[in-house]
Amino acid sequence: MTVQDSVRMAAVVLASFALACGVNRSKPAVEPPAVASSNHLKFAVANSADSSMMLPGVEVSVLMASGETVVVGNTDGFGEVRVPKKLLDPGQAKVVLFCEEHFFCGALQANDPSRDLRKWDEYFLELAPVAVR
């Protein structure tokens, strides 16, 4: 096998992997209620190593389609933050980011009409801690 053949094979494997990742989107385990009752979406952010440990001080930002980043605020002492649903319009918002210094950032895709975040009143997510060894 030549070097070119090896490169082609690697390219095919990587392209197949990329396609599989793009097509294999998970669906929420629970469907949102038919009608959301709040104008805000309450995010509850926990530590993935111990999901009972809520994370205060997580910065929450929304990356808009225009390229603007809107910093919504930080999670409170209970690991909760409220985001106005008007910021989560799939035509305007791209991603909701959750970042804390000792954890990997989390991101929720907001511009996918099949997963309109505005349908939810509450959303629980976990961030993985960064482990340095």
Indicate the CATH class: Mainly Beta
Q: Could you report the average pLDDT, rounded to the nearest whole number?
A: 82
The helicity comes to 10-25%
Supply Rg.
Answer: 18 Å
- Profile the largest sheet: 4 strands, mixed
Structural classification:
alpha+beta
Q: CATH H level: which superfamily? A: Immunoglobulins
CATH architecture: Sandwich
Order of helices and strands: HEEEEEEEE
**Would you tell me which CATH topology applies?**
Immunoglobulin-like
- Envelope shape: globular
Strand content: 35-45%
How many helices? The count is 1
Into how many domains do the coordinates divide?
A: 1
Task: Walk me through what this model shows.
This protein has 133 residues and is α+β, with helices and mostly antiparallel strands. The protein has a single domain, classed as Immunoglobulin-like (Sandwich). Helix content is 16%, strand content 38%. The strands form 2 sheets. Strands 1, 2, 5 and 8 form a 4-stranded mixed β-sheet that branches. It has a 4-stranded antiparallel β-sheet with strand order 4-3-6-7, with no helix packed on it. Strand 3 (59-64) and strand 4 form a beta hairpin. It is globular and about 40 Å long. The termini are far apart.
Which descriptors would you attach to this protein?
133 residues; alpha+beta; Immunoglobulin-like; four-stranded mixed β-sheet; four-stranded antiparallel β-sheet
Quick structural gist:
The chain has 133 residues and is an alpha+beta fold.
Please write out the topology:
Elements: H1 3-23, E1 40-47, E2 50-54, E3 59-64, E4 69-74, E5 80-84, E6 93-100, E7 103-109, E8 122-127
Parallel strand pairs: 1-8
Antiparallel strand pairs: 1-2, 1-5, 3-4, 3-6, 6-7
